[in-house]
Amino acid sequence: MALLHLSFAQHLRAATILGLPLVGGHLAQFAIGLTDAIMIGWYGVTELAALTLAVTVFMTFFMFGTGFAFAVMPMVASHAAQGEDVQVRRVTRMGLWLSAMFFVATLPVFWFSGPILRALGQEAALAAEAQAYLRIAGFGLLPALGVMVLKSYLAGMAHTRAVFWITVLAAVLNVPFNWVLIFGRAGFPELGIEGAAIASVLTHGVAALGAAIYARRKLPRHELFTRFWRPDPESLASVFRLGWPIGLTNLSEIGLFATSSILMGWLGAVALAAHGIAIQLATAVFMIQVGLSNAATIRAGNAHGRRDAPHLARGAQAALALSGAVSLLGMAVFILAPEPLIGLFLDPADPARAQIIAIGTGLMVMAALFQVVDGVQVVALGLLRGVQDTRVPMGMAAFAYWVVGLPTALFFGFTLGWSGIGVWLGLVLGLGVAAALLLMRFWRRALPAFAATGQSLAPERAGQ
How many domains, in total, are found in the chain? Predict the structure, then answer.
């Protein structure tokens, strides 16, 4: 197969064209949670604090489960580059199977989340509100994971614009769903935080239905849903082997942030509400980085399928350059305009508004600090996933987040008494170590091994 070697500028352009719809899709996905936070924030500070806890729990399991969806993306990209349509169908279908199995296994946690949150030191009232949300929103995990698999499939097939518009549709519909169900409009009862949960389930369902319809109509040759019930043990095992380390890597990171919410809950509802707002704003920039990471995964997966090491290396440089530009822009916004951003989430008449803004402004400075390291580590993970190297990166991420990040968060936040600022400083250090380790893994091990053999690091070599 003849290989076309692009210049750095051409790689930048290609990554941008591929990545922009993915970035837009992730921002639209983020907008769903942002809408919930803003509208519940206007409903009440207590409800906002409870939503912060509930969404933390939901996202912890959601990100764990998306390991199988993220595994589908590089596998589809690699098989598509080789013209293997049957393999594309098999891995996508089994990604959906594994996601459904994960949903069934985790649903009891959502149902009994109240006692778990109380055992973790949360206030009884907040735990009860969070459980009320999760008992409804937990059923949305199935369509949420399903749409992630289908979006990974479509992205791997270069249908990134469809991913964007499907997610935008869901984000737009989430606004009236929330308005009607949270506040009791258009003849519906006022349901508060439970209304937000119902709206999220409806939103995820619409997105999943839209993705399935598009896949069936635009890519009929793959016949994704024909004889869907039929098991495929070989492909199931392949997706599972690649996906479980990705899921545990996601769990390591989201678990660190989930634990940070637990720690902030020890400081009270006001501190937790400020933390929830700062996390939402930092996540907005992170979603851009995730889109660039997905683009890096797809392009690396294509290079993997074609056995093209120079394309892989130059594409990695382009992806990291784009990530750095986004990080610098995010830092500038967080440092220059924290108060107006935080104020978007709060009722002007809320008596706790001034205190939340004061705490949140300090947290935004810390969020600015970890923009660069957060971008580097997620793009490096995307590149490694593209060449199907996931097990050692999983261990590196776990070490950085839990051996470095959490202990330093506890030390700075509580031993030294720096409160929320100290907790967030621990997050910065954990992400920084992850960025350094993962970047070295790609440039010093994965890329040289691929250049020498035309293959990614085999599992048996990964630990060497």
Answer: 1
pLDDT classification of 307: cutoffs 50, 70, 90: confident
Which tens digit of pLDDT belongs to each residue from 68-98? 998 998 899 888 888 888 899 999 999 999 9
Distance separating the N- and C-terminal Cα atoms of the chain = 32
What is the tens place of the pLDDT at every residue in 224-257?
888 888 888 999 999 999 999 999 988 888 888 8
How far apart, in Å, are the Cα atoms of 72 and each of 97, 130, 131? 12, 32, 32
* Residue 270 located in a structural domain: yes
**Within a domain: residue 1?**
no
* 243: CB partners within 8 A, 6+ apart: 67, 68, 69, 70, 71, 72, 95, 98
Instruction: Answer whether residue 308 is part of any domain.
Output: yes
Number of residues assigned to the chain? 464
The helix-helix angle for 269-306 and 233-266 (nearest 10°) equals 150
How high does pLDDT run on average in the chain? 86
**What is the spatial distance between Cα 271 and Cα 52, in angstroms, rounded to a whole number?**
11
How far is C-alpha 216 from the geometric centre of its chain's CA atoms? 26
Q: Is-contact 427 260, C-beta < 8 A? A: yes
Return the pLDDT at 5.
66
Domain assignment present for residue 253? The answer is yes
Q: What is the DSSP letter of 346?
A: S
Express each pLDDT in 162-219 by its tens digit: 888 888 888 889 899 999 998 888 888 888 888 989 998 999 999 899 999 999 999 9
Residue 343, number of CB atoms within 10 A of its CB: 15
CA distance 169 to 185: 21
Q: What is the pLDDT of residue 65?
A: 92
Predicted pLDDT at 209: 92
Residues 387, 456: contact at Cβ < 8 Å? Answer: yes
Contacts of 187 (CB under 8 A, 6+ apart): none
Query: What crossing angle do the helices spanning 233-266 and 45-81 adopt, rounded to 10°?
Result: 150
User: Which residue matches tokens 């519940």?
Assistant: 40
> If you write DSSP's letter for every residue of 235-277 in order, what string do you get?
HHHHHHHHHHHHHHHHHHHHHHHHHHHHHHHHT-HHHHHHHHH
Domain that holds residue 297: 8-462
